[in-house]
Amino acid sequence: MAGLSAALTLAARGARVVVLERAQAVGGKLRQTRIEDALIDAGPTVFTMRPVFEELLRCAGHSLEERLPLVRADVLARHAWSESERLDLYADRARTADAIGTFAGAREAQGYLRFARDAQRVFRAMEVAYLRDARPGPLRLVRRMGARALPALWYLRPFESLWRALARYFRDARLQQLFGRYATYCGSSPFQAPATLMLVAHVEQEGVWVVPGGMQRVAQTVADLAQECGAELRLGSDVQRILLRAGRVNGVSLATGEFVPADAVILNADVAALADGSFGAELAHAVPRPRAGGRSLSAITWAVLGHAEGFPLSRHNVFFSPDYAAEFAQLFGARQVPAWPTVYVCAQDRDAGPGTAPDAAERLLCLINAPADGDDRSYSPTELEQCERRTFSFLERCGLKVRRSPSQTLITTPRQFETLYPATGGSLYGSATHGWRGAFSRPGARTRVPGLYLAGGSVHPGPGLPMTVLSGSLAATCLLKDAASSRRRRGRDTRGGTSMP
Ligand SMILES: Cc1cc2nc3c(=O)[nH]c(=O)nc-3n(C[C@H](O)[C@H](O)[C@H](O)COP(=O)(O)OP(=O)(O)OC[C@H]3O[C@@H](n4cnc5c(N)ncnc54)[C@H](O)[C@@H]3O)c2cc1C
Ligand 1 centroid vs 392 CA: distance in angstroms? Predict the structure, then answer.
């Protein structure tokens, strides 16, 4: 997504752009799998921060509404802890407060309203000063926030964990769990992530959207527009090395041996692959080495074509484990798949309102978090079978029975994610955002190598579709600025002041 966004931004500004994608389809993690005739979204399913996409398309003179109509979800997500404990979050804040009041009492409803207000303040404080800044760092952030920086510290709470901060708003551990789960949107633990991540709650509150036709359309729309603006898209082009001349990028070589010349390269693979020398040993120093043990979460997913019975699924559903602390201790401490994992179920044929069941078999994506150890270990068939049995029997305890045959189930493990996204161990969100420094541990768009730029979920401002769009735009902007200033420099150095092409 970041590479496509960068390509669109650059092509719309008149740059000559070639997108090299090794897969046979665009989108990367934004991918679909097929079971029988059904295409199932097997990557991101929650679309948020619509204005970021609007801005991207506007830069190419188009409107999102016209190119990619979206439908607003009434129910943000349905949450369950058992057969009798269910809670919906709504697009309407007052309705959510009422639902929380009925679920957990008036005090918790008041706590929610305070939380929603503070999450909004955190988002506003961070949006321009951090999310849209190309060179984040603690001092720079404070400078950019100016006089607001000190008072903001008490609600940004960078030194407090999200989990602990949530206890200030909620006494009911289930609500702490619900809002703490937002840390997993960047593959992190709510017990280690800074409270600042409460901004994700605001992002969802601002709108969750359904993409008719499937999430893949998001990538395809941006790819189509980039091509309309003149970008060349080459699928099935596996970049093996990024090449340098006199210390500066001058192109890439493909697995076929072909050399593709370029004045600059924006790399959209995980930065871990660059740091481990996968694109050339001489480039390993281009970024700081990712912290050992600092990987974000991987996942085990089951794409299913089946019949869901018993539980009134909405589009987005979360079934919470009985012991959240144990779940994250297993994920990040013991580095094991949790015994009783929290399960996310995306019912892709249900609307994001009441969620009426379709008549035929329906498309589901079920996901649990897993440690990013796909390069170290693979699960035996027995382990996977046990994990699957536990996951689906936990759903049954919450009232959801999924009838399906093995041929209607496609599993993806950390090892398969490692194959798709090399050098990551299957980690899906770059480095984990743990501790106050976590948010600053991702590299920015510029690298130590002239002409080499980075974009993607492992780069600032982080994972998630809207963040990667921002990262792509930031990389394009840095590249254009650098190109303009080197043209100016060369112009000055050239006798007669003529600009060099
Ligand atoms: C299961 C899952 C669920 C998620 N849920 C959500 C969600 O609900 N909402 C949300 O906003 N985000 C979600 N995310 C996160 C979101 O999908 C990612 O942050 C985002 O899509 C990552 O985009 P990216 O730009 O980093 O590139 P990637 O998607 O990682 O794509 C990188 C591209 O580079 C290509 N590439 C890599 N190496 C080479 C090479 N050597 N040569 C040529 N091409 C190469 C790859 O093939 C790939 O197409 C989810 C992710 C996963 C995996």
Answer: 27
Residue nearest to atom 16 of ligand 1 (CA): 464
Among 137, 69, 27, residue whose Cα is nearest residue 468: 27
Q: How far is the CA of 165 from the centre of ligand 1 (A)?
A: 30
User: Model's pTM, two decimal places?
Assistant: 0.95
Ligand 1 center–CA 440 separation, angstroms? 20
Name which residue sits closest to atom 18 of ligand 1, judged by CA: 464
- CATH number of the structural domain spanning residue 18: 3.50.50.60
**What atom of ligand 1 comes closest to residue 2's alpha carbon?**
25
Of all atoms in ligand 1, which is nearest to the CA of residue 270?
Answer: 30
Beta strands in 170-288 (DSSP E): 209-210, 232-235, 239-245, 248-254, 259-261, 265-267
Residue 467 lies in a domain: yes
Tokens of 6: 């960068």
Q: How many domains does the chain have?
A: 3
Q: Which atom of ligand 1 is nearest to the CA of 278?
A: 41
Domain extent for 301: 294-420
Q: List pocket residues of ligand 1, CB cut-off 6 Å.
A: 1-3, 20-23, 28-30, 43-46, 238-239, 268-269, 299, 301, 367, 421, 428, 456-457, 463-465, 468
Residues 287 and 310 in one domain: no
**378, part of any domain:** yes
> Are 218 and 124 part of one and the same domain?
no
Three-state DSSP string of 322-376? CCHHHHHHHHHHHCCCCCCCCEEEEECCCCCCCCCCCCCCEEEEEEEEECCCCCC
List the chain pLDDT tens, one digit each, 501 residues.
999 999 999 999 999 999 999 999 999 999 999 999 999 999 999 999 999 999 999 999 999 999 999 999 999 999 999 999 999 999 999 999 999 999 999 999 999 999 999 999 989 888 887 888 887 777 777 777 776 766 666 677 778 999 999 999 999 999 999 999 999 999 999 999 999 999 999 999 999 999 999 999 999 999 999 999 999 999 999 999 999 999 999 999 999 999 999 999 999 999 999 999 999 999 999 999 888 889 999 999 999 999 999 999 999 999 999 999 999 999 999 999 999 999 999 999 998 666 677 878 999 999 999 999 999 999 999 999 999 999 999 999 999 999 999 999 999 999 999 999 999 999 999 999 998 877 788 999 999 999 999 999 999 999 999 999 999 999 999 999 999 988 888 777 654 333 333
Choose the final residue of a domain: 189, 206, 223: 206
Give CA 261 to chain center in angstroms: 31
